[in-house]
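Retry 2 of 3 after timeout on previous attempt. Resubmitting structure tokens to design endpoint.
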């Protein structure tokens, strides 16, 4: 199949269709849009509750293409750009704040988990693209959610000097009293990684 000058298939801003993309078809894809966070339940679990801060829609852009390589079939690539504003709980003052996440990443797509694993384990590729496994029903929604979760701060915090002095004092007093109602509400990186399921 000649993949040069191929007209890309346009992906709609539709979660149902983005959950089942045939990346084995030899087609290339482009798409962009903004999705409600209701389609990303794991991401919603990480957001601050009981706050007047409202998250933004999740803005996404994606494109795929093929590149020839010597001695083998063309490699398939995917570029993913994501942006979202999320209410998180600052771990310094325990007050919700808005965290802006903007991530831009390239992936190499392989037919098997063995090929993807070999790519990820090759030290020469550590600063290059991440590997994903293609399928006839590739779930872009899940990949988007994985990428945002991995881009979240391990310890959410206001910017330097943005925590209010009275809020910091309240936290200090509660810690001194050993208040067992204080809950450190932050993403658990190990739990996140455990739930990542690449197609």
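Retry 2 succeeded. Sequence:
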């Amino acid at each position: 199949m000649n993949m040069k000058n191929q007209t890309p298939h346009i992906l709609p801003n539709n979660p149902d269709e983005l959950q089942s993309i045939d990346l084995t078809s030899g087609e290339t894809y482009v798409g962009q849009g903004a999705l409600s966070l209701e389609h990303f339940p794991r991401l919603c679990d990480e957001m601050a509750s009981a706050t007047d801060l409202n998250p933004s829609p999740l803005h996404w852009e994606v494109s795929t293409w093929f590149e020839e390589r010597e001695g083998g079939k063309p490699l398939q690539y995917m570029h993913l750009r994501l942006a979202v504003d999320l209410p998180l709980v600052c771990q310094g003052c325990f007050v919700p704040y808005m965290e802006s996440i903007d991530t831009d990443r390239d992936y190499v797509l392989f037919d098997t988990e063995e090929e993807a694993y070999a790519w990820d384990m090759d030290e020469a590729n550590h600063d290059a693209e991440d590997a994903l496994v293609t399928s006839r029903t590739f779930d872009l929604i899940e990949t988007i959610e994985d990428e945002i979760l991995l881009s979240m701060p391990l310890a959410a915090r206001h910017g330097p000097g943005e925590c209010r002095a009275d809020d910091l004092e309240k936290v200090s007093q509660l810690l001194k009293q050993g208040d067992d109602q204080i809950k450190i509400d932050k993403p658990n990186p190990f739990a996140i990684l455990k739930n990542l399921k690449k197609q």
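Attempt log closed. Residues 184-199 have pLDDT under 50 and may be disordered.
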